[in-house]
């Protein structure tokens, strides 16, 4: 005869607990789980019109998202859900975590039904669960499912057989949520640690209610290995402490914020041969955090922590028509993920393109550590020595209690080729009207073709050349209006005529993206083709002029962009757009 046990405790049936623990141990041994995976499961693949279908979406791993978009449904409708649950298990000191969303579905008509693929972003990767096909027939074909037993379910036979009646002393166990601080500034990190203190073996745990962090931006951290736990003494009593969850919290507003209690249900393994084990339900205490505001100032980036800014250019010396890349880097520890606005950059004598952003950030207990880099493409438009100005990055230092500034040093950029201070000249074609400069960029191929050799000239020769230049200057000054009138008279509407045949231009554009052409070569070919067809449209304010200038701006943006990916599709789009412009306006 079994010993009497108290009927007030929630008991776990001995066979169910033993089988559950054995299955968990076997799965942990032979089924290693990835850091994050997504599953989509149904309780039947053949249902009737009168049946309900249960769909469960599960994401494994500590970085499970708070929400997963529901999959597309064919011939099915949602009649309930989602019911969200978070499961955590502690086996041999190793913690695993998953989150599930359960829907109840019903078919609309007999025939074929489908639950579409489920996609969820876990951390920095996107995971996909495949679609599930469902067969729907008339009536009801789904058998009644027996109630699933879990370590957290109460055995209905306890009352029937009047057991247990003897009381077994419950071991000491409690849970704790401990913040690293309770007074901090907006944007300053707070480490919140959830731990279990126990004197008994815990075979499983689950959250009764998901932790809530209203007013905080949350980053998940991976708990340390809990093999065997760590010894801890609380009020003179010895425990084993297991860390089950770590959260990095950043307050987003000032004032008094409260982290509400969280309930955790713990499956306590049986303590003796005659003990079936039981479920203990414990709750953390509420936590109140005082958040201080941070001062505001013009140009403040919003960063809170300790940071350092630096800048570097990849090519301090370059030829006129080439591009340099300026990298502005901010590194340190704090809330750098919040900062996404690039610094304002303007370089006299050069064109600056919008930056690309690169991040190398990792959440750690002390905050988010790493760097964020903005890469600007700088295209000089004049020869000589240009100056990239100093760039500033402002941040709030909680230790100093004020806004600090990290400033880079100015960087010289030496541009060779051409006359210092002169804008890049336009390419000169063999036929057609002369093109005004207007500050436009020359093609790189045209600049490379201009390589005047050095020559020794006598003083007399120099004097003669200077006089010829003065005469030529006077002639050009008087001939400019006449040339423009002649150019306008030679083409309809006063437009500059085509500088090359259209068929050849279209053939060149169709070749874009073939034969492994680099993006610089492809963009240069588009530019040469457009310049060859239209000549100069710098002063044209009609629809044609605006369309051609916008096309060239987009082509130059790709041409001088850093090689951060495959541009072939974008170049084919620009070539097709250039072909449309030629057919419409040439």
Please describe the structure with a list of short key phrases separated by commas or semicolons.
586 residues; alpha+beta; 7-stranded antiparallel beta sheet; 7-stranded mixed beta sheet; 31 strands; 20% helix
Please tell me about this protein's structure.
- This protein is α+β, with helices and mostly antiparallel strands and 586 residues long.
- The protein is built from eight helices and 31 strands.
- The strands form seven sheets. A seven-stranded antiparallel beta sheet has the order 1-3-6-5-14-19-20, with helices on one face. Strands 22, 24, 25, 26, 27, 29 and 30 form a seven-stranded mixed beta sheet that branches. Strands 11, 13, 15, 16 and 17 form a five-stranded antiparallel beta sheet that branches.
- A hairpin with a 2-residue loop joins β8 (118-122) and β9 (125-129).
- α6 (519-534) packs parallel to α8 (568-585) and α7 runs antiparallel to α8 (568-585).
- The longest helix is centred in the C-terminal third of the chain and has 31 residues, at 459-489.
- The N and C termini lie far apart (102 Å).
- The model is unreliable at 1-35, 147-154, 425-467 and 469-498 (pLDDT under 50).
